[in-house]
C-alpha cells in the first residue's frame, strides 16, 4: 500500500492507516466516515480495501466506496472484474454500480448480462445507465461498432422492463448511445424505439423522458 500522506481528508494519514481505521470502526457511522476518508485519497492503493467494503452490510459505507472507486476510474476496473464472480450478491450489486459509473468498455459483458435480467431492479437500472455512458473512444472503431449493436439490442429490450425506473434508464441510455454511434445508420432504430415508448409507455415519467430524448436528438444535425 501507499506510504504517501493523504492530505486533509485523512488528516495526514497514510492509506494503510486509513484502512486500519475502517477495520477498527466500532459503529456504522464511524465506518462510513472512515471509508469517506479513504475514498478521498484517490489513491490506487486504496482499491482493494474499497472493494472489500462493498461486501459489508453497511449501505452508507458501500456508497462511499462506490464513489471512491468511480473517482479512480479505469484503474479500478481490473480488480472489480477479477473478483466480481466471487462476490456475494450484495457486493456484486455494488460493484456493478461502480462499473456503471466508470464507463470503461471492459465492463461491457457484465453490464450487458446484468441489464438483460438481474433480479434486482436497482441493479438493472444501474447497468442500463452504465451502458449509456460507455467511453467508446477507448475502443477501436470496428470493436465499438459491434459492441454498440449489442448495447442497442439490450437497451431496447430494457425499454420493456416491468419496472419503470429501468425503462427510464434505458431511454436515457438510448439517447446517449445515439450521440456516440460509430454507425450513424443505427440512429433511426433508436428514434423509432423512443417514439414507441413515448406513444405507448404507461408511465408519464418514462413518456416525458422519451419525448425529451426525441426532441434533443431530432434537433441535432
Structure description:
The chain has helices spanning 15-24, 28-40, 47-53, 59-72, 77-83, 89-102, 108-117, 121-131, 141-158, 164-179, 187-200, 204-218. The longest helix has 18 residues, at 141-158. The protein is mostly helical and 221 residues long. It is built from 12 helices and no strands. The model is unreliable at 1-9 (pLDDT under 50). α3 packs antiparallel against α4 (59-72). It folds into 2 domains: 1-102, Alpha Horseshoe (Leucine-rich Repeat Variant), CATH 1.25.10; 104-221, Leucine-rich Repeat Variant (Alpha Horseshoe), CATH 1.25.10. Helix content is 67%, strand content 0%.
Key structural traits:
single chain; 221 residues; mainly alpha; Leucine-rich Repeat Variant; 2 domains; 0% strand
